[in-house]
């Protein structure tokens, strides 16, 4: 790992004219943000594995934030686990935009080393960074983060609800159901409503249970979640959970 | 008769010949002072143990409270408009707009009433064993005058002396009345005749008060206390018997006694709630505070100091409400609180000797209880603990007391031991509940004390990190950084490294954290400093305040090997490094000390 030590390659720069990669590497270090950003962008698109090295070197030795942001964006696309350490470092950068990009890129990496940083980022001071971490953990269906994601929801962060919906196990659905009154109705309905819309959520009796839980939440948020569920299951009209949802909607609209 | 004694006699006769308060009277004369000292005999102890309470609100009352009996002895509905003055067998106060009333302290009955002209403003009064003396400012004539009047115990006027300048509130002792005069003088007058005996002219500071105690007359201004004796003839602090209280802090203003010239201070005011309580005595040819003690009374708090060493002896916090008046009567501090508690503290230890509730709303009180060492009412079960009391004062939610709290932190800093360090640390890391000035002072004290026993506490505190989900917001990291650096606590490096690279660490804090890591050294420190420098060297966020980056780079040169030096050289030379860092590092690298 060459993070935050000067690599020999960087100190003794390659001669000019050594191909596109070398040109971009040199350009990356120009005292012209526009050209450096352009080079960073192009390095992100290069399939050459050495492009990743150049990008990591660029991040490890410091650059203006615009260039760093472009490099981090490029790393996200590469999904290469060699970037883990650098991304972990940038997940704690003072610039929230860079943290957000680093966290998102880490979330895409199939590497367990990313997990502690992602969980830690749920406690970030900036909402967008927390949201990026929550979505990353949700997409990874990271059950070990459930507790913190519930806390995030309790702190009124919508990202917590959305991430929990992505994880969405039957036990989690029950756990969220028990939080009626403890978290904002809108977030609770988002979590349960989004779970219902997921094709892989189930089995059916659990869906019915979730629908019934939603019926206990008064107001427009739960009705909206139920209506969206009914709309999303248009093709399966006889599904018991859908019928239950429809029944509740009808009862509410008749009042 | 020798020639010299003849001249002295002439001089003495010349001094005596002038009218009282005459501008031509001589001052700072040893002979005159001796005469005044001889005339002013120490009074016999009266054995009184009374408090005279003036209630607040519209229907004012004057209440005699017997400390020994622990109960109200008498109460009268009276429009009291001044501080009550007390002496043997007589108390007096201004009543309504135009009366000065003398009362029997045993039952409150009126002994006499003196009419104050509408043009007269009451300045103050004093009582000795024989007479009452009072001062008024009169605007009756074309020029404003101050008048000192002596009356006997029946209220009969014995004499009066007027002067064109200002007179302050008088003090009386053993047949001599002393009065501040024209801000610079204290004039001593025979109480029987009204003739001037001696005059002191102080050339160092304004004299705003004179106070009579069994041990003598004391006078002074805002900075200290003089004992009236032969050395007073020098007219300066250095050669007089003079003492200042050392409170070990400059956080609070010391108020030695009521300003005798200020009409507002003739009544009970906030000055009664914020003053220094002291007794003084002649010692070793000079003067000293009795038991070397000075007690600062501030609202509901008392801080007793060794006034010589400036070291806190004890602190006392009265529960909930302000103490409106307090007096050091020798072995005890007696006080009255706004909600009617009358209390006694042991002056040596600060232990409560009890409080008695009266149920009154009290505006102010005067105590005549010299040498009272008894108790009153019921004593609390708990012992007075200095550390606990100071903590209680500091964490008092009442926001009025910032200066007192800063003072309490100062006092806390002077206490030795891990518990005191822990108490300071608690203030430094508090997220809320303490004023910034209090927190700042606690930080200064913590850095200054260099307590190695407390290092584990500091290390624990440094582990605290920002956490949105847990609602944790570390405070005082910069202080802790300075503290562990001053103690060379190398175990703190990993936590400091984490703070340096933590996005939640406020930017102004970074320089202290970087400096601490630079001081501590070690692998963790070097790694964190390098990462920090490389990550932010080109970040405009540091343009305005690049100190932390510069400290990091210098530390790398100092602590690291060739590789770290190469890193710093790269940062200095690289075009995108922000100019304040690049330029600074080039200078550092060019310096002879950096060329190893």
Task: Quickly describe the structure.
The complex is a heterodimer of chains A (255) and B (596). Chain A is 68% helix and 0% strand. Chain A has 255 residues and is mainly α.
Describe this structure in words.
The complex is a heterodimer of chains A (255) and B (596). By secondary structure, chain A is an all-alpha fold. Chain A has helices spanning 8-11, 19-28, 33-45, 49-60, 65-78, 84-90, 96-108, 115-121, 127-139, 146-154, 158-167, 170-177, 185-197, 204-215, 220-232, 240-254. Chain A is elongated, with a radius of gyration of 23 Å. The model of chain A is unreliable at 7-17 (pLDDT under 50). Chain B is an alpha+beta fold and 596 residues long. Among the domains of chain B are: 1-39 and 117-260, Beta Barrel (Lipocalin), CATH 2.40.128.630; 493-596. Chain B has a four-stranded antiparallel β-sheet with strand order 3-2-1-28, with no helix packed on it. A four-stranded antiparallel β-sheet of chain B has the order 4-5-6-7, with no helix packed on it. A four-stranded antiparallel β-sheet of chain B has the order 8-9-10-11, with no helix packed on it. In chain B, strand 10 and strand 11 form a beta hairpin. Chain B is elongated, with a radius of gyration of 32 Å. Classes of the chains: A mainly alpha (255), B alpha+beta (596). Chain A binds chain B through residues 3-6, 11, 29-31, 60-65, 89, 92-96, 99, 122-125, 130, 148, 151-152, 155, and chain B through 466-470, 501-504, 507, 527, 530-531, 533-541, 563, 566-567, 570-571, 574-577.
């Amino acid at each position: 790992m060459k993070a935050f030590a000067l690599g020999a390659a960087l100190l003794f720069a390659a001669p000019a004219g050594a191909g596109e990669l070398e040109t971009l590497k040199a350009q990356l270090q120009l005292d012209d943000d526009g050209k450096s950003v352009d080079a960073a962008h192009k390095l992100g698109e290069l399939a050459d594995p050495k492009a990743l090295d150049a990008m990591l070197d660029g991040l490890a030795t410091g650059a203006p934030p615009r260039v760093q942001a472009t490099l981090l964006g490029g790393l996200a696309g590469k999904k290469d686990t060699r970037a883990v350490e650098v991304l972990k470092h940038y997940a704690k950068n003072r610039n929230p935009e860079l943290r957000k990009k680093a966290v998102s890129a880490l979330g895409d990496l199939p590497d367990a080393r990313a997990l502690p940083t992602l969980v830690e980022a749920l406690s970030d001071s900036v909402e967008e960074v927390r949201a990026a971490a929550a979505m990353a953990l949700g997409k990874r269906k990271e059950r070990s983060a459930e507790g913190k994601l519930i806390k995030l929801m309790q702190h009124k962060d919508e990202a917590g609800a959305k991430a929990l919906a992505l994880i969405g196990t039957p036990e989690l659905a029950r756990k969220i159901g028990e939080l009626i009154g403890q978290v904002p109705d809108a977030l609770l309905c988002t979590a349960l409503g989004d779970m219902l819309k997921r094709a892989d959520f189930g089995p059916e009796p659990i869906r019915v249970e979730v629908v019934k839980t939603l019926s206990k939440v008064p107001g427009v948020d739960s009705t909206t979640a139920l209506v969206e569920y009914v709309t999303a299951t248009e093709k399966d009209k006889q599904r018991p959970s859908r019928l239950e949802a429809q029944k509740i909607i009808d009862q509410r609209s008749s009042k | 008769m020798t020639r010299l004694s003849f001249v002295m006699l002439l001089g003495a006769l010349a001094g005596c010949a002038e009218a009282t308060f005459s501008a031509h009277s001589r001052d700072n004369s040893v002979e005159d002072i001796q005469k005044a000292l001889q005339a002013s005999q120490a009074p016999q102890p009266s054995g009184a143990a009374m408090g005279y309470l003036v209630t607040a609100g519209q229907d004012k009352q004057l209440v005699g409270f017997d400390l020994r009996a622990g109960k109200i002895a008498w109460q009268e509905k009276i429009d009291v408009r001044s501080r009550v003055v007390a002496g043997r067998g007589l108390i007096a106060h201004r009543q309504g707009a135009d009366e000065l009333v003398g009362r029997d302290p045993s039952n409150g009955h009126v002994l006499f009433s003196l009419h104050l002209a509408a043009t007269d403003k009451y300045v103050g009064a004093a009582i000795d064993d024989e007479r009452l003396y009072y001062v008024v400012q009169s605007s009756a004539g074309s020029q404003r005058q101050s008048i000192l009047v002596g009356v006997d115990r029946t209220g009969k006027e014995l004499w009066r002396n007027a002067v064109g300048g200002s007179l302050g509130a008088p003090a009386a002792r053993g047949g001599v009345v002393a009065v501040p005069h024209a801000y610079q003088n204290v004039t001593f007058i025979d109480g029987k005749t009204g003739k001037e005996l001696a005059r002191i002219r102080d050339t160092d500071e304004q004299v705003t008060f004179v106070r009579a105690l069994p041990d003598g007359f004391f006078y002074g201004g805002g900075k200290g206390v003089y004992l009236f004796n032969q050395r007073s003839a020098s007219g300066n602090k250095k050669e007089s018997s003079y003492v200042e209280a050392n409170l070990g802090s400059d956080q609070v203003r010391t108020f030695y006694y009521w300003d005798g010239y200020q009409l507002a201070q003739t009544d009970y005011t906030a000055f009664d709630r914020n003053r220094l309580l002291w007794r003084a005595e002649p010692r070793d040819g000079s003067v000293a505070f009795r038991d070397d003690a000075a007690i600062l009374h501030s609202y509901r708090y008392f801080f007793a100091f060794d006034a010589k060493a400036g070291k806190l002896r004890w602190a006392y916090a009265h529960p909930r409400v302000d103490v409106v008046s307090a007096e050091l009567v020798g072995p005890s501090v007696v006080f009255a609180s706004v909600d009617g508690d009358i209390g006694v503290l042991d002056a040596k230890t600060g232990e409560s000797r009890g409080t008695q509730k009266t149920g009154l709303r009290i505006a102010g009180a005067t105590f005549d209880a010299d040498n009272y060492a008894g108790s009153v009412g019921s004593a609390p079960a708990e012992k007075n603990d200095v550390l606990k009391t100071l903590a209680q004062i500091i964490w008092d939610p009442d926001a009025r007391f910032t200066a007192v709290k800063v003072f309490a932190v100062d006092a806390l800093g002077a206490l030795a031991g891990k518990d005191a360090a822990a108490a300071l640390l608690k203030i430094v890391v508090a997220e809320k509940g303490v004023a910034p000035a209090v927190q700042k002072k606690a930080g200064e004290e913590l850095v200054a004390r260099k307590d190695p026993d407390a290092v584990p506490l500091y290390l624990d505190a440094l582990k605290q990190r920002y956490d949105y989900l847990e609602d944790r917001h570390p405070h005082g990291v910069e202080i802790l950084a300075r503290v562990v650096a001053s103690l060379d606590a190398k175990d703190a490096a990993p936590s400091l490294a984490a703070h340096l690279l933590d996005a939640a660490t406020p930017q102004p804090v970074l320089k202290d954290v970087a400096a601490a890591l630079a001081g501590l050294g070690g692998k963790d420190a070097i790694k964190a400093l390098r990462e920090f420098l490389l990550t932010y060297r080109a970040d405009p966020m540091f343009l305005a305040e690049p100190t932390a980056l510069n400290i990091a780079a210098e530390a790398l040169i100092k602590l690291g090997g060739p590789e770290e030096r190469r890193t710093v050289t790269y940062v200095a030379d690289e075009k995108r490094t922000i100019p304040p860092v690049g330029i600074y590092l080039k200078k550092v690298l060019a310096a002879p000390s950096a060329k190893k």
